[in-house]
């Protein structure tokens, strides 16, 4: 299999709010948009984000009312402390303070307006 691209598709109540969150705070840009749909791309990220309005008919009926539950959007970044400071300065609430896990992962978490957790990660050199 040759994977050409990767996309995370999130079903949310307020597409505009999540779109604004990812564009204002994480540098994504709107690639396509229609009623109840936004596709976001990023110059350096190897993943796109699609936001779908809960209830939208393009989804199979059994998925239309399911929200992005149990999903964590994670971005590996450089200079984690600087990213945390930048987000704090932009007024984003840090919902999980910066910490280091025993396996070498350093992380903190924020949450988008629809409750989607966004984790920023940096790996400690062993």
TrEMBL record:
InterPro entries in the cross-refs: Glyas_Bleomycin-R_OHBP_Dase (IPR029068), Glyas_Fos-R_dOase_dom (IPR004360), VOC_core (IPR037523)
VOC domain residues: 3-123
Cross-referenced SUPFAM superfamilies: Glyoxalase/Bleomycin resistance protein/Dihydroxybiphenyl dioxygenase
TM helices/strands, residue ranges: none
Cited Pfam families: Glyoxalase (PF00903)
Origin: domain of life: Bacteria
Name of the protein described by the UniProt record: VOC domain-containing protein
């Amino acid at each position: 299999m040759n994977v050409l691209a990767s996309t995370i598709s999130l079903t949310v109540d307020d597409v505009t709010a999540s779109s604004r969150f990812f564009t204002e705070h994480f540098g994504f840009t709107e690639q396509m948009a229609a009623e109840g749909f936004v596709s976001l791309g990023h110059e350096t990220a190897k993943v796109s984000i699609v936001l779908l309005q809960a209830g939208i008919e393009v989804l199979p009926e059994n998925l239309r009312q399911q929200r992005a539950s149990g999903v964590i959007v994670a971005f590996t970044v450089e200079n984690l402390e600087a990213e945390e400071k930048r987000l704090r300065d932009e007024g984003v609430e840090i919902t999980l303070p910066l910490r280091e896990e025993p396996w070498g992962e350093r992380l903190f978490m924020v949450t988008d307006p629809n409750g989607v957790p966004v984790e920023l990660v940096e790996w400690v050199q062993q």
